[in-house]
Write a structure and sequence with these properties.
- The structure is a single chain.
- By secondary structure, the chain is of the alpha+beta class.
- It is globular and about 60 Å long.
- The protein contains 9 helices and 30 strands.
- The chain has a domain of 154 residues: Cathepsin D, subunit A, domain 1, CATH 2.40.70.
- The N terminus is likely disordered.
- The protein has a 17-stranded mixed beta sheet that branches. It has a 5-stranded mixed beta sheet with strand order 16-19-28-20-27. It has a 4-stranded antiparallel beta sheet with strand order 18-17-23-24, with no helix packed on it.
């Protein structure tokens, strides 16, 4: 079905009005009606001439925007984000700045300005990352992955109904493979527990500033005989990007489960966070609760459950790490159940989702640094695979770093030794879940010194009211097996097998 082109003025209006932010658990199952989808991580190409401080601040800015949206607060303005980037730039020592392409840094600032001039805030797959081989400092393999345009492919899962997860870059994001249309075409989608919409690019997709939407997979009437486009227009903004398009329905398949008529979005306009050829995914698949859907549709997990294709409304995640370049990812997404091989049942805790607006949010009982409790007994935390870092209020972040030997605050952000052995342990439901010390080091400040100082993966947000929300991204989620359940509105968390 063909629909008339949208006038440019209408597109602009929709992209500024419809993108107003909205606030966006699982139990183990033994039934047989489940499906698992492998997850893979994707690597984002990084310019080696851009200082690691600037790379870190990019993730901080994205996290700040996402934090505000997920906690129901006002998002930082473009000026605030630009000022933070400029402050980080100004904090670099002149001798260090000489070794880097200043134009590359300024380009990142211009990039930030162009994003926010059209969309106040935006989404890029995020995640802090550390390789399992870097015990004596930051792993050389991890650093290589951080600056190269590579995707760590997922190995084929052995558990029934499981999809492997590819890894983007140095654990910037995690992707699964979906089949859409007739004949079916494979789309690689970024998995996001912090949103509730599924979308891919359309055959008529236009990039921000004009031109096509890059070398990606696209869907439309030319490629799918079962493609049906509706009159409904939708738009969504993430922590670092935005898209606008039509609601469609078509054949949908994931890990062998088929919905002949599934409603989802096809983008006609995308910002520059999604269109470059180096971006390895073709769209995003959200698994928050559908009450925050900008498309006003069911998530694919809800649709599969209501169709009876899975026995329970569960999505279970094993978020992978990059170990050595060329080694396949062991990440997985299992639908309808939890994979017993991926968690220690003695550590399993099931928690009520306390988010009133549709995200996956749980109550944190206590926090220890180096085995010492620091007295956090009233914090709510949001679990978000779409966020790279660990974000918390400024005072909380200072206390978390207080007992990490060698941690330094430079007035803009915290650093930790790349060789840190500090362990931060979070307590949920009476069970303790430690964060691997390697996950605290985001990237070396001097890429020639992998045993020097690293930007901390725990970063601060300045709140105008309250000290109650933390945003736990992949820094924490890599250390646990967790699941969400749309039927019971619960979250389950357990330690990985063999993890002390």
């Amino acid at each position: 079905m063909k629909f008339p082109e949208l006038p440019a003025v209408l597109v602009s209006l929709l992209l500024t009005v419809l993108l107003t932010p909205e606030p966006a658990v699982g139990l183990p199952a033994t039934q047989t009606g489940y499906i698992s989808v492998p997850l893979t991580s994707v690597h984002d190409k990084r310019d080696p001439d851009v200082h690691p401080d600037i790379l870190h601040q990019r993730h901080v800015n994205r996290g700040l925007t996402r934090y505000a949206r997920l906690s129901g607060r006002a998002e930082p303005s473009p000026l605030e984000l630009l000022t933070k980037m400029k402050n980080r730039l100004d904090s670099l020592h002149p001798d260090i700045r000489k070794r880097y392409n200043h134009e590359g840094i300024e380009e990142s600032i211009s990039h930030l300005m162009s994003i926010n001039s059209i969309f106040p805030g935006a989404p890029v797959p995020n995640q802090a990352h550390v390789s399992d081989e870097g015990a004596g400092g930051y792993s050389p393999s991890l650093l290589a992955v951080a600056v190269m345009h590579t995707v760590t492919e997922a190995k084929q899962p052995e558990f029934p109904s499981t999809m492997g997860l590819d890894i983007q870059g140095n654990e910037l994001g995690y992707m699964g493979h979906f089949l859409l249309g007739t004949p079916p075409k494979t789309f690689r989608l970024l998995m996001d527990t912090g949103s509730a919409d599924l979308w891919v690019g359309g055959e008529d997709c236009t990039a921000q500033g004009g031109g096509g939407c890059g070398k990606h997979q696209f869907l439309g009437p030319k490629s799918s005989s079962t493609y049906n486009q509706t009159d409904t227009i939708w738009a969504i903004r993430y922590g670092s990007g935005a898209v606008l398009g039509h609601l469609v329905y078509d054949r949908f398949e994931v890990a062998g489960l088929v919905l002949e008529k599934f409603f989802f979005g096809v983008a006609r306009n995308e910002t520059i966070q999604f269109t470059p050829d180096r971006i390895p995914f073709d769209g995003i698949a959200g698994t928050a609760r559908s009450m925050i859907s900008r498309q006003r549709t069911k998530t694919f997990v809800e649709a599969l459950y209501e169709a009876g294709l899975i026995k329970d409304g569960i999505a279970s995640y094993k978020i992978p790490r990059v170990t050595t370049m060329g080694v396949q990812s062991d990440g997985e997404l299992t639908l309808g159940a939890m994979n017993p091989a991926n968690y220690d049942p003695a550590t399993l805790v099931t928690l009520s989702n306390i988010s009133p607006i549709g995200f996956w949010e749980v109550f944190l009982q206590d926090v220890k640094v180096g085995g010492k409790s620091i007295g956090f007994t009233s914090r709510n935390v949001i679990l978000d695979t779409g966020t790279t870092l660990f974000l918390a209020p400024k005072d909380d972040v200072a206390l978390l770093h207080r007992d990490i030997p060698g941690a330094i605050y430079n007035g803009h952000a915290w650093t930790v030794p790349c060789t840190t052995t500090a362990v931060i342990t979070l307590n949920f439901g009476g069970k303790e879940f430690p964060i691997d010390p390697r996950d605290l080091a985001f990237i070396p400040l001097d890429t020639r010194d992998l045993k020097g100082n690293c930007a901390s993966a725990i970063t601060e947000v300045v709140l105008h009211s309250g000290q109650d929300h933390w945003l736990l991204g992949d820094v924490f989620l890599k250390n646990v097996y967790f699941s969400t359940n749309i039927r019971t509105n619960q979250v389950s968390i357990a330690r990985l097998p063999g993890r002390p």
